[in-house]
TrEMBL record:
Keywords: Membrane, Transmembrane, Transmembrane helix. This is Division septum protein Blr. It comes from the Bacteria. The gene is blr. It comes from Salmonella enterica. The chain crosses the membrane at residues 12-33.
């Protein structure tokens, strides 16, 4: 195998590896975005007991 074919083979492998890395990162980010989109904030327990932080005076 001459030098140019060897270099071309290395470049093709690097391009393929880069494509796989981009694909994996995209899937991970889509999973994170989906998780954030489905986020349900917890119910505020302090307000359920009649406590309001704005009514507390600091002296």
């Amino acid at each position: 195998m001459d030098k140019s074919k060897q270099m071309s083979s290395i470049m093709n492998r690097l391009i393929e590896l880069t494509g796989w890395i981009v694909l994996v990162i995209s899937v991970i980010l889509l999973g994170i975005a989906n998780h954030i989109d489905n986020y349900q904030p917890p119910e505020p327990t302090a307000r359920a007991h009649g406590f309001r932080p704005e009514e507390v005076s600091v002296r």
